[in-house]
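User: Structure please.
Assistant: Input sequence and predicted structure:
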Amino acid sequence: MNVVIIGGGAAGMMAAITSAKEGNQVTLLEKTGSLGNKVKITGKGRCNLTFEGDIEDFKENVVKNSKFMYSSFTQFDNHDVMQFFEDLQVPLKVERGNRVFPVSDQAQDIVLALKKELERLHVKVIYSERVTSLEVIDKKISAVVTQNEHRYECNKCIIATGGVSYPTTGSTGDGYLIAEQIGHHIVDIQGGLVPLKSQDPICKALQGLTLKKIGYRLLDNEKEIYRDFGELLFAHFGLTGPVVLSSSSILNRIDHIENKLKNGKIRASIDLKPALDKETLDKRICRDFEKYSNKEFKNSLEDLLPQKLIPIVIKLSRIPEHKKVHQITKEERENLVKIIKDISIPISGFMTRDMAVITCGGIDIKEVNPKTMESRIISGVYFAGEVLDVDAYTGGYNLQIAFSTAVAAGKNN
């Protein structure tokens, strides 16, 4: 069987490998000059390729259409992904939050392993070849046509073109256009796992500061809509980092969100000491105050907080910075505890789509067979990866979606 794969990202390469193992003649068409462009930059260049956990962890972290993923995930789950790469001589490790990375911390190692496997299986890779349309006869795929006016005959075509995030890697939404041409519906496209904007001067004052092991909540009219624990980064535009990116996937699905953002109804709450309740934190501060009793307040927080954060916390606490520690009242100390447990940052919007890690929206999953990833509209057309209307939080879940759907699509069904 002649199989054409459109797109040389994580899903495209895995689909090509799977299909070649099934004994097919496989051609992979990549519109840029290299494979795995987005994989190379995931996880800050370290590639968080999957997670350590069970199917319940997966379901809880797939934000949209998790039920659709059940069949493909059970065919090729996270442990299969780990075994696959270790068989390709890429040793892996599990880090905080059950995130799986290559031991080398090099995303390039994942791409090289996939490329070597493509070569071993004699997959034909053609670069700088952008697909513009599919030839369909009697509701069945017959060929793939490219911008260079090349025509590739095939019995099966797998569309794995990615979404619209990181367009410089080649993800510019081509798959959606191709799918629409053959009658598929596209669910509204927007950036997912995207940094959040804030006009609060605190963000600009703290830009570049990374806070680890913090508690993070997102509130809508003081109603909690998201809670997490982990890493956050202040930027000149607002907030980013894993907990913030994941929270954006909930935020962008709230009804009338633009009005709520505009009217200041959405805020982030940062708990600098999530392991301590208020009473325990107060005791800790009392011990520090006893230690620094004769010093000024501004010099009493170094054991508790990062240096860059101290002026901000002092300002929010409204305790005069030159006040002697032994003169600080119980009420002032209690307010300090409150601030440390809840630094409030009003959220004003989302950063642009080109800063998104993934794409929300895509090919309507009602038109795709969840077991095989085949189109229910055109026979022989399959989909894999981010082009589908499925997305998840950070933590390796989105690459797992890519690998699971790619294996399902690549098999001879």
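The mean pLDDT is 94.
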